[in-house]
Amino acid sequence: MVDTDSNAGRMVVLVVVAALSMPAVAFAATYRVAPPPAGDDAADGSDAAPWATLQHAADSVAAGDEVVVADGSYAGFVLTASGTEAAPIVFRAEEDAAVIDAPPVPDGPGVWLQGDGFVTVEGFVVTGVPAAGIRVARAGGGQAQGVILRGNKVVDSGGDAGAACIEIVEADGATIEAGVLHGCGGAGVSLGPVDSTVVRNNVIYGTAGGGIVAEGGDRIPGPDGLVVVNNTVSLPESGGWALRLAANGGIGTDNVAFDNILLSADLAAGSVALEGDVGFASARNAVGDRMSTDGGATLVTLARFQAEGYELGSFVTEPDRLFVGAATDDYRIRAGCPAIDAGLAELNGHPAAEVDLRGTHRPVGASWDLGAYEFCAGWTCDGGDADAGADVGGDDGGGDADAGSGGDGGGCACRLAGGEDAGWMAVPLAIGFAVVMRRRRARSGKEPPMDTDGHR
């Protein structure tokens, strides 16, 4: 079961990982929030006298401030203040049970970021709110800068409104990582026109409006520089597309998707849908056999999609042949499955994730594993450097290695479009990746290194 439980050993390791991975930030002030009776908005927000509500904290902070939130149930918050690149505003759950279960405004999202940006929201559980679990929409329009949404669990929200678990209206330099997103009325992640945005190491399942959806428009082109990497998406019937990119009359550039698991049981949709000039390259994803190049109007096979220059080295599979227990929402990959060591270190200059959702350093073994979880065994799965020997795990006991689609020796029965075995492990994916990229804009620099809060 995917949940937010953690033990003391795991938390110690993850704190070390976060400390080593993140640039040093000297907070102007650190405030505390705790539920009543310990918390009181008339207090000073110190360790000894915490505030009681997230909204009071949001109304009080300025650039460089950190808000640490104790376990408990809270109404959410609307934040109009902004940080800076050198002095972000951080809202951070202290442990793993700081739960936002009511909106701060009627029919609103659980967390609503309305400022100019440079805000981090980390480690919260958002559940049962009527709109998006977390929404980023700059007041007055325009792109919010440098927003980081890390390690949040958003569930069962936005049902009546058809809202996403996480919604970003416009952004530049956003990061959505290490989240567990499920049961929402819309997509897991919904993006408007975004630049240089990373969606990484998330598990998305059971959503009604797609997995990851990114759309540009006439007024603002895009998406541009969107990196979708090491995510696990598994959608039910009528769940929509696992990944959908639409230029909507604009032009997208330098968008990539690699090292993901992108599955949908929706027979009217599938794994990847493109619409318009989205400037897209993709490779080494585990997918279903339904794709589209016209926004879903026409379904094509993976082989046909590959003939267009997409999904080099990707292969067709099913949830039960990849995951430890899809029926119980356990989306770790099974021993012996071809998703192990099947990934790339980078695509078109965009790097794969440095650690997985739990904090395990990647890669374990010969190369990166697909999806949000790196396959490993033992205590090292809790954030340490796993033994590479554990990654070549042999047979998973499933007894279905052939299944008429090419043996993998591990019972996964995954197959590559285009024939038995099809040589996908030897596909010569050159770093230049001469993939169909109608228009490509060079990006300087790389996204910041990733860390997680250790959700399982």
CATH class: Mainly Beta
The total of helices stands at 3
CATH topology: Pectate Lyase C-like
Number of domains: 1
Distance between the termini: 8 Å
Unreliable stretches covering 5 or more consecutive residues: 3-23, 385-456
Second-tier CATH architecture: 3 Solenoid
Tell me the overall shape: globular
- Report the C-alpha radius of gyration, rounded: 21 Å
Approximate strand percentage? 25-35%
What keyword list fits this structure?
mainly beta, Pectate Lyase C-like, 10-stranded parallel β-sheet, 456 residues
Write a structural description.
By secondary structure, this protein is mainly beta. It has a single domain (8-392), classed as 3 Solenoid (Pectate Lyase C-like), CATH 2.160.20. It contains three helices and 36 strands. β33 and β34 (330-333) form a beta hairpin. Mean pLDDT is 83; it is low at 3-23 and 385-456.
Write the layout of secondary structure elements.
Blueprint lengths: L7 H14 L7 E5 L20 H7 L4 E5 L2 E4 L1 E3 L9 E5 L4 E5 L8 E3 L5 E4 L2 E3 L6 E3 L7 E2 L2 E3 L2 E3 L10 E3 L2 E2 L2 E3 L2 E3 L6 E3 L2 E2 L2 E3 L2 E3 L6 E4 L11 E3 L2 E4 L7 E9 L3 E4 L2 E4 L7 E6 L2 E4 L2 E2 L3 E2 L9 H6 L7 E2 L6 E3 L4 E4 L12 E2 L2 E2 L105
Parallel strand pairs: 1-2, 2-5, 3-6, 4-7, 5-8, 6-9, 7-10, 8-12, 9-13, 10-14, 11-15, 12-16, 13-17, 14-18, 15-19, 16-20, 17-21, 18-22, 20-23, 21-24, 22-25, 23-26, 24-27, 25-28, 26-29, 27-30, 28-31, 30-32
Antiparallel strand pairs: 33-34, 35-36
